[in-house]
């Protein structure tokens, strides 16, 4: 009951019902036709195939992707990252509603969350926080990939993004959950990268975010409502000053700083204007296409690395010796260098 309702709303649950759906038999043509005609159920099922651990599902997913590729690429891809609890999900909901209700455009929301399998917390959180958007016919929300079967959650999200584009979603919002590598991974799949922060998030957090700040096309100080308006504006000014110290990006875009309230919706329109201005600039000067091409190249390299890695890890000769050598390294009986060499030799000899 719960899953049927959720599916109608475009929310695909990551729990048990998914497995059932993945095994529902549809042909490659049926999937592609369903996706291209904007059928959200089919889109959700196809993404489930992408995330499936079964090779047969993955193969089918690959074929569907191939067929959908010519229909993809026509969206504005926006990544949203920021401090935990900063209001990323709320902002996605506000942006999504703005696009759906005022612009009459379609919006897909995806999440990169490497921690979801362990905590499960953010999945639940996002589902409850995006209720209004989830109820819209023009929105598709995929809270989080289940596992990194093929090339990690980031790759699943990339592929899901292409399917969403083929299904006519002209705006893709990707929420980054978790810290560290995820941000770079998301930066590598979007056109515009938005950093959500808070006034008084603390020096420590700001410090962590310094590296991320350099990746951002806009930094938005959220929760600028109620008694917070003034401090948010002050924080924005400080961030703007800090950003001036960075060299100008090759695209010619100078990162924007804004304040907004995902709760009241104030500043959401201005935020989207910045995204659109960036799109116009980078489209006009060829930078967007160049950046997307570079992302494709990078993606290819990642897939190769992942494929090689998987082949290595599943190699019988390697597996037999790995545990023993790992223990020896930990106990100081052999060096990392020597152990790695032995494993690589074992791998190449088995070829
Ligand atoms: N006052 C105020 N509260 C907000 C605003 N945006 C979000 N919140 C609240 O802040 C809390 C966290 O919001 P989320 O949207 O879940 O933040 P998040 O960054 O997605 O959180 P995680 O994904 O858990 O890191 C919730 O209680 C929201 O209601 C805002 O603009 N103003
Ligand atoms: Mg969230």
Characterization of the model:
This protein has 351 residues and is α/β, with parallel strands linked by helices. Helices cover 58% and strands 11% of the residues. The protein has helices spanning 2-8, 17-23, 28-36, 40-51, 55-68, 88-102, 116-119, 121-129, 131-134, 152-166, 181-187, 203-208, 210-213, 229-244, 268-284, 287-313, 316-330, 336-349; strands spanning 76-82, 107-112, 139-142, 171-176, 192-198, 218-222, 256-259. The protein has a seven-stranded parallel sheet with strand order 3-2-4-1-5-6-7, sandwiched between helices. Strand 6, helix 14 and strand 7 (256-259) form a beta-alpha-beta unit. It is globular. Mean pLDDT is 85; it is low at 1-20 and 116-124. Guanosine-5'-triphosphate binds next to helix 6 and helix 8.
Task: Strand order, main sheet: write it out.
Answer: 3-2-4-1-5-6-7
| Relative strand content | 5-15%
Q: Pairing-aware structural class of the strands and helices?
A: alpha/beta
- Gyration radius over CA: 22 Å
What is the residue-averaged pLDDT? 85
> What best-fitting shape do the alpha-carbon axes yield?
globular
* First-last Cα distance: 51 Å
Residue runs with pLDDT of under 50 for 5 or more positions:
1-20, 116-124
Instruction: Write the H/E string, N to C.
Output: HHHHHEHEHHHEHEHEHHEHEHHHH
Q: Helical content, roughly?
A: 55-70%
Total count of helical runs of at least 4 residues: 18
Can you summarize the main beta sheet? Answer: 7 strands, parallel
The ligands found in this model are: guanosine-5'-triphosphate, magnesium ion
The strand count comes to 7
């Amino acid at each position: 009951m719960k899953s049927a309702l959720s599916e109608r709303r475009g929310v695909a649950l990551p729990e048990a019902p998914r497995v059932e759906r993945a095994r529902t038999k549809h042909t490659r043509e049926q999937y592609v036709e369903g996706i291209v005609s904007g059928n959200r159920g089919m889109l959700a099922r196809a993404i489930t195939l992408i995330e499936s651990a079964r090779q047969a599902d993955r193969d089918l997913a690959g074929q569907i992707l191939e067929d959908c590729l010519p229909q993809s690429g026509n969206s504005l891809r926006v990544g949203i990252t920021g401090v935990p609890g900063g209001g990323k999900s709320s902002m996605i909901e506000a942006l999504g509603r703005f696009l759906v209700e005022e612009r009459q455009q379609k919006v897909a929301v995806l999440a990169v969350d490497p921690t979801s399998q362990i905590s499960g917390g953010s999945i639940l959180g996002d589902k409850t926080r995006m209720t209004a958007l989830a109820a819209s016919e023009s929105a598709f929300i995929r809270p989080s990939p289940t596992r990194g079967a093929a090339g990690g959650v980031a790759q699943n999200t990339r592929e899901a993004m292409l399917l969403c584009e083929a299904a006519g979603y002209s705006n893709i919002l990707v929420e980054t959950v978790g810290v560290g590598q995820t941000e770079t991974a998301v930066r590598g799949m979007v056109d515009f990268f938005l950093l959500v922060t808070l006034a008084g998030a603390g020096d420590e957090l700001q410090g962590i975010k310094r590296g991320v700040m350099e990746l951002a096309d806009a930094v938005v100080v959220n929760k600028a409502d109620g008694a917070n308006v003034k401090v948010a504006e002050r924080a924005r000014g400080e961030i703007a000053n800090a950003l001036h110290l960075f060299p100008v990006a090759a695209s010619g875009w100078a990162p924007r700083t804004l304040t907004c309230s995902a709760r009241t919706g104030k500043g959401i329109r201005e935020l989207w204007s910045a995204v659109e201005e960036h799109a116009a600039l980078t489209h006009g000067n060829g930078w967007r296409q160049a950046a997307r091409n570079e992302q494709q190249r990078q993606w290819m390299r990642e897939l190769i690395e992942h494929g090689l890695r998987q082949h290595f890890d599943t190699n019988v000769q390697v597996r037999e010796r790995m545990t023993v050598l790992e223990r020896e390294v930990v106990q100081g009986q052999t060096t990392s260098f020597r152990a790695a060499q032995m494993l690589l030799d074992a791998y190449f000899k088995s070829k």
